[in-house]
Each structure stands twice: as C-alpha cells, then as structure tokens.
Amino acid sequence: MNLKTTYSEQELVALLQERNEKAFGYLYDNYSGAIFGIINSIVTDKDIANDVLQNVFINIWRKIDSYDASKGRLFTWMLNIARNASIDEIRSKGFRQSQKNQSLNDNVDVAGASTEAVIEDVGLKKVLTNLKSEWRVLVDMSYFQGFTHEEISKILDIPLGTVKTRIRSALSQLRTMIQP
Amino acid sequence: MNVQEFISSGIVESYVLGLTSEEERREFESMCNQYPEVFAARNAFEIGLENQAMQNAIAPAADVKNKIFNTIFPSRGGVGGGSSSAKVVSIGEAPVKKINWFKYAAAASVILLAGSLYFNFSLSEENKKLSGDYDNTVAELNSIKKDVQVITDKSEIKMASLKGTPVSPQSYTTVYWDSTSHDVYLLINNLPKPPSDKQYQLWAFLDGKPIDIGFISNDYFIKQNSLLVKAKSVQKVQAFAISLEKIGREDTSVPAGEVYVYGGL
Questions:
Q1: Does A57 touch chain B (CB under 8 A)?
Q2: I need a labelling partner for A129 at 20 to 30 A (CA). Which of A6, A169, B221, B242 fits?
Q3: Virtual CA dihedral for B25, B30, B35, B39, nearest 10 degrees?
C-alpha cells in the first residue's frame, strides 16, 4: 500500500476534524514524543507520565473541534492541553500519595534551592537553566508547577507587581534563546 | 506602548505558554489580528517552541498508543469507528394461541414487584454509600483547604526547600516559617517511611546550633491525611534539617541519627 506519509498542518487539522483515524495515528506517531517530553518535565514519574499522555491524546481527539487555528498552531494547542493535564496531575492528592518513594520535586528548583541542577534537565527546562536564578524560580513555579502569580507572590513574599514584571522579562529572554 | 515594545514585553511568550489571564489573552488576540508583526512574532515563537520540543522528544511506553486507540475506536476496523451496526430483527408472526392471560399477568406483576423492591433497596444502599463518600470527600477537602490557607493567607511566610542528603538523595521537604508568629509548618514532598523503631525529628539551626522543633509522628506515613505538619515555633532560624532517630533515645536535644534533608531559609 502506498500511503501518504506527511500532511501539512491545515490538512492534518481538517482530517482530524473529520475524525480520520489514519490522521490521528500520524499525529500520535509524530508528536507523542515531543508532548511526552513536556509531560515529563512536569510529572517526573514515568508510569504516571504515560497515563497523562494517554489522557492528553484522548482529549486532543475529543476536543479537536474546539481547536481554532487563528489562535495558534496545532502543536501549541496540544502543548497547552498537555501542560494543563500534567499540572492537574501533580496537584491531585492521588499523585502526592503515589510519590511516597519518589521525590515530587526532584528536578524542580524552588526558592532557596542550590544553583546547581540536581539532575540533567531537558527541553524547556534546560533552556530555563540559562535564565538568571531569580527569574528561573518564577518561571519554574509558574509554568512547571502551575502556581498563579498571586500564589507565587505569597509563597516567595514578593510583591505581585514584581512577580508579573519578572516573569514577563524572563519570558521575553526565553524567546531569544529558542529562536527557530 | 508601541507595537515593538508590546512584542518584546514577554506577552507573546506568556500567551503561547498559556500563562496569561483571560483579559490579557483577549487583548493579545486583538493585537494579533490588528498587527501582522505581532502575529509574526507569535508564530516564530511557536515554531521555536515546537522545534525545541521535537528535539527533546522522549519515547513514551509502547502500549500507550494501543490504549488510546482502543479507547477512542472501540470497534476497531471501521474508519471513524464508534457506530455499532444495528441488529436487524425480523418480526415474526405473533403466535395466536389461547393462553390463560390472567395467570401470566399475576405472575408477571409479582416478578415486577419483587424486582422493583430489590431495585429500590439497592438504590438506597447505593445512595447511602455515595453520601458517605461525599461526606468523606468534603471533610478531606476542608482539611486540605485549611492547611493551604495557613501558608497562602500570610505574606510573612518564608519558605525553605530541604533537599536530600547523600543518605537519601530522593528525599525532599519544604518548610514554611512565619516570620511574625514564628510558626513552623512542614510539607513532606517525599521522605521514606521510617522503620517502626525510628522516627523523624525536625531541627531548626541558628548560628550552627540545632534546636529541636519536634518529631513527625509515624502515623503521618500511614494515614497521609494531612498536607502540612505543624512543628514547634522557633523565634529565629537560619536553616532546617530532618534526621531519623531511634524512638525513646535519652537526649533528644541534639541529633544523633542520620540527617535526611537539609536546607537554608
């Protein structure tokens, strides 16, 4: 059989919205690794990360009609589904209890933590390590741990306005670090 | 603010990474529609992010794909799947027979009554169970809320991350110290369950000297029903540590066992 093996993003979205199984298989084969990488940077337990990935792809399939190309690329949309699902997972009580024998935050640098990375960070996290430490903590808490600006302000005892400005500055730096 | 300033303010990245508020999101979307530069900046960051993620892809477990496909295409085979084929039943001729319908009706009503009684009974059992579950969940939620309020309601809270020592590199805990009331709360992110003859002791350090601020009950590791553990208050502190100690040792004012986690304020 001679099957078409690549799709443009537009074609892919159109096929997915028509509930085309083959297109979904292609989506999974192409993007599951990248999405799994992101999930792993938030959910450190491999088994749980695999469960999250499973739910993320099921949700992508179920919610594909709500994807709006004018608001961003397909990957960005999937990435945000994956991040939200990962944050929900680490905040669930079940997850905390399952972590009895593993560190919940073993690759998360929070306030007061040493500057040396404990384990090798990959992906976005690696990019983060290039940021000034006071910025990195904020981006880490906000993106990888899902704290709101208000929560960060309270936990770190920094004025809310400062939290916002610092996160913005840090993120604008991030862009120069991952130019296409 | 001109468009260039807007683009370099970090809003593009916040938007793409999903860190904007509802209001900021709407504002950004309207800027995106108005200014092609804003759209271009967003698109460039999105592509960069995607490339970054692709380069750092990690292979998931092999069975995940099958699990996903089995969930969303339960009747594998048909593209799209989902619709189960309707069974065609031919309507046969109704048997014309003289039957004692009254007898059958009476029997049927008895069966129906018994069925309905059983159904009511099991529904009420189910209700009882659900309402019990619900009460437990609410109680659990309230206790978690109370715990969280302790640390989120106050701005004088300082936080210390206690990282695992070589004895237990996986261990990790967080201490919240209220610099006004001097209360100390411990969040156990990860500590191994202690053996039954030992228990963890929490220490505050001031000028290098340890101050005993209490034991962590071993019950915590069995029930796990509280988020935060309250320790003894401490007036001044520079660092915290947790050691694993034999239960019932004589002098509990200095640590004797191995230190599991340690971290400065």
A1: yes
A2: B242
A3: 40
- Return the SS3 of A45: coil
User: Hey, how many other C-beta atoms are within 10 angstroms of the C-beta on B60?
Assistant: 23
Cross-chain Cβ contact B170/A101 below 8 Å: yes
What's the token pair of residue A26?
């292609």
| Closest CA in chain A for residue B265 | A112
ipTM score: 0.81
Predicted TM-score (pTM) of the model is 0.53
**Is B56 part of the contact surface with chain A (CB cutoff 8 Å)?**
yes
Encoding tokens for residue A111?
A: 């306030």
β-strand pairing of B198-206 with B184-190: unpaired
How far apart are the C-alpha atoms of B41 and A12, rounded to whole Å?
Answer: 23
Residues of A in Cβ contact (< 8 Å) with B60: 32-33, 36, 49-50, 53
Residue A82 C-alpha, separation from nearest chain B C-alpha, in angstroms = 11
